UniProtKB/TrEMBL annotation:
Belongs to the DASH complex SPC19 family. It comes from the Eukaryota. It is found in: Chromosome, Centromere, Kinetochore; Cytoplasm, Cytoskeleton, Spindle; Nucleus. GO terms for cellular component: DASH complex; spindle microtubule. Keywords: Centromere, Chromosome, Cytoplasm, Cytoskeleton, Kinetochore, Nucleus. InterPro entries: DASH_Spc19. The keyword Nucleus applies. Residues 106-117 have a biased composition (Low complexity). Residues 95-131 are annotated as: Disordered. Signal peptide: none annotated. Its main location: nucleus. This is DASH complex subunit SPC19.
């Protein structure tokens, strides 16, 4: 029995040696396991989305932005039209002022010519007639100026009416 016991002990020692060897091999194999896990771990840098989801997001964004863009375009158009009308009004005002200046210059020249003609005609004539004539000349000039102003205002209103009809 001693021999069978000694065979059992020796077999057990051999098994323990083999187990130690296996543990050493396994330990050497898995000692680098945490680093390998880290290296082999995949990191997603970009998320892939299905095309329908992408289209829905684009449509949602478009639905959200479109009213704002339309509103801003409307505001810009209205402002441009307002500036255009103001420009036309300023041009008409400029024309009116130019007309006033030219009529004023022609009036002054006409007045000088008429007063020198009056002086020549009067010779020793009555001062009352000269004053009446001057008053009538001034009235004529005022009326001429008023007619020119009304004509220019009429042209300006015509332009504004045409512009407002074109906008509609």
């Amino acid at each position: 029995m001693a021999s069978s016991l000694s065979a059992s002990v020796s077999s057990l020692q051999s098994s323990l040696g083999l187990l130690d060897s296996s543990i050493s091999t396994l330990d050497a194999g898995i000692s680098d396991f945490p680093r390998l896990c880290k290296v082999l771990q995949t990191t997603r840098h970009f998320e892939l989305l299905p095309e329908p989801t992408l289209r829905e997001a684009q449509q949602s964004l478009l639905d959200e932005i479109t009213p704002s863009i339309a509103h801003l375009l409307s505001l810009a158009t209205n402002h441009v039209e307002k500036l255009s009308r103001r420009e036309q009004a300023l041009k008409a005002k400029c024309e009116l002022q130019e007309g006033r200046m030219s009529s004023n210059e022609s009036r002054q020249a006409s007045n000088r010519a008429q007063s020198s003609a009056l002086r020549d005609r009067q010779g020793g004539g009555s001062a009352a007639k000269a004053a009446e004539l001057r008053r009538l000349v001034q009235k004529k000039e005022r009326l001429k100026y008023a007619v020119e102003r009304l004509e220019l205002q009429g042209r300006q209103r015509e332009r504004q009416l045409r512009k407002s009809m074109a906008v509609q």
